[in-house]
Every structure is written in C-alpha cells, then in structure tokens.
Amino acid sequence: MILTTKDLKDLRLxxxxxxxxxxxxxxxxxxxxxxxxxxxxxxxxSIVKKIVDLLTGRTGKIxxxxxxxxxxxxxARDVVSxxxxxMQENNYSQLPVLRGTQVVGIITEWDIIQxxxxxxxxxxxxxxxxxxxxxxxxxxxxxxxxxxxxxxxxAVLVQNQGRLQGIITRSDLLKLI
Length: 177
Prior knowledge:
- This protein is α/β, with parallel strands linked by helices.
- The chain has 2 domains: about 5-55, lambda repressor-like DNA-binding domains (434 Repressor (Amino-terminal Domain), Orthogonal Bundle); about 65-175, CBS-domain, CATH 3.10.580.
- The protein has 10 helices and 7 strands.
- The strands form 2 sheets. It has a 4-stranded mixed β-sheet with strand order 1-7-6-5.
- Strand 3 (about 95-100) and strand 4 form a beta hairpin.
- Helix 2 (about 20-25) crosses helix 3.
C-alpha cells in the first residue's frame, strides 16, 4: 500500500496532533513534518514507519480482526449479469475480480449502473470493472491506516502473501463502535 503525504497529514489531524507534537514523538523537527506534508521532501522509510506506527497504534485493531473473510469473488471473464446476480444474492455492493487467483480489480454497483446501455449478459466483468478500485493491504495492517481510504474507495481487500483473505467495507468499520 502506498501512503501519500496527504494520508500522513490526514492521520495526524485525525488523532488531534500538531506538527510539533508529532515531530517530538518521532524525533524530528516541526519544520521537517511541515516539509513532509507539503511534499517538498522525500522522507526516509524509517521516518515514515515511525509516523505510521505512532499514528496507527492508537486503536490496536488490525484488518484481519474486522474483515469479512473469504469474500465472494467473480472471474474477470464472467459476464456482468453474473456479477449482478451474486451481488443481489449476497446483498453486496461490490465484488473483487480475479484472474485465476490474482486480484485484478473490483466491480461495483456504480460500474454496472454506468454500463446499463450494454447487454449485461454479453459484456465481461473486466470490461466494466474498476481496476484502480482494488486497494489491497496486508492482514496485519492497522485499521487506522485504512480508514482514510474509505473517502475514495468503497472497499479495501485484505491479503496474506499475495492471496485474497478478506474484504473490509464501510459496514465492517461499524464493528469498531
């Protein structure tokens, strides 16, 4: 998973820390944090790890604890009407798309709605899926790291050694309450 400087700033703000407080916690200057958040410097991996560890160690929950295991998936070559049926049967708003055992994207209700002009019994899932909509994280990733991702994505896929293990949706986040 790639965290942007905006993600780091959002995490800092969500935990109510000033730049100076974060800097003190990880052993750098406030100006270093400011430059990092502006994107004017490329931080050392060790600094990013310290920031992420500090900010994500707040709840102690990891993705494997709240994910829905063994998610229903669909093959990239299947037709969209099959995806619609699976979504309706299981009351899901998205499905991970696989080619073999490899995740290649995610198909959402919105992807399908945008393609209603096509014959959904003939068009393949890979033709309408969101390839950039499949964010994958390791099952040991802190839940706090992924929460900001839900501003732009409907789901986060959870993997272990490259194999899909589960899915986290917004409703799974409600388990934290």
